[in-house]
Input
Amino acid sequence: MYRLPSQKNSDSNREQPTAHPLAADSIRSPSAETINPLQLTPSSLFVIQRMVGNRALSRLLSQSNTQPPSSLINSNVPHSTSTSEPVQRIVIQKKYDPNEVPYKTEKSLIDRANELYEQREDMLDKGDISGIYSIGGDFEELKEIAIANGWLEAYDLLIKWGEMIPGDEEEEQEFALYDKVAEFEKKLEGLNSEESDVSEEINVVIDELRSIEHIAAMNGWNHIVSYARKVGNYPPVVYGNPSGETPNYVESDTLDGIIKNDVPDPNEAIGIISALESQASTSSMKDKAKVLNSIKDTIDENIVLSTKENIKIIKSFINTYKTAQSRKFNFDKCLQMLDGVLTTGLKRRTESPEIEVTGEPFNPELPEREDYTGIHMSEIESKYDVLARKSGAPEKEGALIPGAVHEVDLAFLDGMRGIPNYRVTLKEEEKPELGGGDGGGEKVYALGHTGAINFEGALSNRGGERLYGVLFPSGFMERYGLDLRTKGISGKSAQTPVDQDFAQGYMYDDKEKTHRVEIPSTKAFAIRAEDNTPDGQAHIHFSRSNMNIHGEKMSQLEFMRLFVIGVVEFNMQGFVINIKYF
Amino acid sequence: MNNKLIDSLLHPKESYERTQALREAVIELQNNSFSSPQENVINFLRSYKTEDQVQAALIGILLHRLDRSKPPQIGVFARLFPALQMLWEPQIQKMAIEIFSGHSPKEVFYELTDMVALNEGSEEDRYYAYNVISTVDFDSVPETM
Output
């Protein structure tokens, strides 16, 4: 069946129709797409029929053994090449311009479909088939947009007008589920939640919606998941990839709480200090008071747990005490161990140079918060600066990681504010297991949705791809982003500056240190460019913890999250599937 | 090890490029276990410090393979320790478990704590040891594999 990349069930091995490159993938790539039009095997017949319709197919078949008509040869776009070549090729130019998306409503999409249908019929009436592949591609594109937005009326019309093969069993199930949600939506509208005698009925409907959501999540039908949540208005659920027939899941608020609490318990550290003080006062080791006081001061200073380094100091302190207890060390040895570990922690805290960010603090005016669901990202980007990412399903070597939560779902958690620095796996008993795999790494976001859609990185394109965008106030990138897109020695992008470079205010882009790049102290993060991200990509370093921004100490991650306004998930056509403001 | 790979390891344009180069180096060293990378690469692997747990684990695997048949050193354990729970990197996790085979993670955790507390071992090994004892919960460390 035909499925959006963002809706793919990543553990599915089902064959995808080869018509995809004409529609979805032509959007992905800015270059022209090339296809083989007339290799008339049964499967290619299916593809062509699906794409151009039965009437056009019969016309093609009747002409497949003859020279193409002159109109076809002379046509600029698209056209088939000479029949003397072993394989005929048709070049379809990409027409997609994200800045000019006309389909913001179902009606506008239907209008466009009507227009295309009439064009195609007119062409066929005149015996001119030069444009039918292009129109076929347009139909596929419209169909994707319709299904992504849940515009079923438009989708049904497109199938009818495209004279395509009816949907398979799975597709029918998908539509049946969608219809069911629509039915429940009407039912809820009819129930007055103020009346106590209907509350039980409402709860039954909500339970039904939750169960529909689970089925949809298992199949990767995100638009149904979003729709069910919207209708049911219950706390969102986070799913791990299904390891069996039933997916593991947890309410997002619960997962958020668990992640937020993944810091050492300050009371545990305070308790250890009390125990040490108690032992010191009752033993003959009063001479250790100086060491103990020093330990106590360090704990007092870091117990706020406001930075990553604070957390590490407290955690290593608690761990060291526990190892000493476990190995039955005496008081003297225990104190020595704790002192040694804290000394290392304090040294590490000041090891990386402080990066000071100066200048006028950024106080933007924010636009009114609107529901952009179903609206194109270009609309959002006219109001916000957007950092976007494409992320594959959490899998390796073709094997799905059982219970692993998708990065996009993590991005929606309050604690992550669009920038997930945790990996989460839901175990059989639905207990989340946290992994800080990106804890010391770096996350790279494209500036704008097209950079994410076009991103070709292997890890982002290994199946189960989903896209999300993080909303910042308009002007944020310009104010704090260090634009390195053309500052490299070759005239292309410069490399990523390290902490030391930011701290000293310059870097060299070459090993020989001949090409110096200035780093003004008003800048807080780097914006580079790669082939897939000509508009730029922002680099967020999770280990860049020693920053002083307008006089306030924080990490780069904390700084970025401070300005995040919301997060959206969007599809490969750039339409918003889900939105959340923080 | 070709020049492009070495360049990506030593002078990457971004962190991701270095991670990919390390992954390639692990595969290369597995397929051609009798050849060693150049001295500058070995020096880099021994001295490079990172909080990126994936990079650290890959370096740990490479250092272990460079030692050939020797038992794993404490510095290798320090770099690999977080990979024991790296569910989202099953290949790295598998290699880490293989290298830890026959060793008690709890005992290794004790050793890493001692290194930090008593200032033992090389500076680089201590760096990774501190990363472990300041991020992993002692209570979650198993006695045996």
Notes: Chain B has a mean pLDDT of 91. The interface with chain A takes residues 11-16, 19, 50-56, 82, 85-91, 109-110, 113-114, 116-119, 126, 130-131, 133-139 of chain B (CB under 8 Å).
